[in-house]
Amino acid sequence: MTESERLKNLEVPTHPIDCVLDTDTYNEIDDQFALSLLVKHEKTNVRAIYACPFFNSNSTSPEDGMEKSYDEIMNLLTLMGEEDMKKNVYKGSRGYLTDEKTPVDSPAARHLCELAMNYSKEDPLYVVSIGCITNVASAILMKPEITERIVVVWLGGHYTSWIDTNEFNMMQDIAAARVVFACGCPLVQLPCMGVVSSFYVSGPELDYWIKGKNALCDYLVKHTTEAAEEYAKGRVWSRIIWDVTAAAWLINDGGRFMLSEIIHTPIPEYDHRYAENARGHFMCRVTHIFRDQLLQELFRVLAK
Fold first, then answer.
1. Is the CB of residue 224 less than 8 Å from the CB of residue 201?
2. Which residue spans within 76-158 are E strands per DSSP?
3. Cβ–Cβ < 8 Å for 12, 249
4. Which of 78, 92, 126, 213 is the most buried (most CB within 10 A)?
């Protein structure tokens, strides 16, 4: 792919977008918001949803995290009344890459390989990833030719001015991040600390805008409040829901919700730093979120 072709695909299309979502949905509450926005928005056509692994206090292993995420995806689709979409949900990797050359086989990775081959440079498939990027990296290693048929939009790592890039999605599988950053596909990065960490919601906003609107909204309000109260314990709180920003990049035509820059792709290193790469291909990096505008759009879509 030439740089001019790559740059063209880093522009947000104005037409409806075919996409897939790769998500560790049970990890924390922001994935539920992002998935709901992508499925319910009139501009996006979600072709598949992939459960990806995660390992923290909400899981006993990466595989357990993936299985719980798969179940949570099904739960959300039920709340949205999207029963037909359940046939397009796939289980992902049961572990992380062991190196930068060996994929982790999974139904999700195989499906992405197959689906992406139906697209082209001129009409790519958008791959939105809001967890560790193992499934996507595995598909690229299994079928490298898909790199010219997809645009990867990933929420992972921190902004380069941050003290490190020891961010949950990236640090779980740095090998996978290195595969995706180096493969040459059009790449959009939404850095966490320093950029999308500014996208949050408060309890009064949830209650005013979406509480009581439908079963999905009530579920999101309840679980966001519970998650916040775990650490706030009766104090004033706001809750980061930054995964929404990756889904929202697909509807950001005209720069309504975020700003970005074009840079040479850096190299994620195993010591949780970036290495500069002046010869790296061009990628898009989001630099600012218009929080209120995006939150209003999110609430509009959820309340439908």
1. yes
2. 89-91, 125-129, 150-155
3. yes
4. 92
- Give the DSSP letter string of 109-126: HHHHHHHHTT--SSSPEE
Query: For residue 189, which phi and psi values (nearest 5 degrees)?
Result: -110, 135
Q: How far is CA 141 from CA 6, 101, 145, 169, 289, in A?
A: 20, 7, 9, 19, 32
Rounded (10°) angle between helices 30-40 and 215-232: 160
**Contact by Cβ (8 Å): 87, 73:** no
CB 67 within 8 A of CB 53: no
pLDDT in tens, 215-255: 999 999 999 999 998 888 889 999 999 999 999 999 998 89
pTM of the model: 0.96
- 42: how many CB neighbours lie within 10 A of its CB? 9
Domains and CATH numbers, the chain: 3-302 (3.90.245.10)
Closest CA to 267 of 161, 183, 185: 183
Q: In the numeric block, which tokens belong to residue 222?
A: 């309840």
Please name the helix (run of DSSP H) or strand (run of DSSP E) that holds residue 284, with its range, or none: strand 282-289
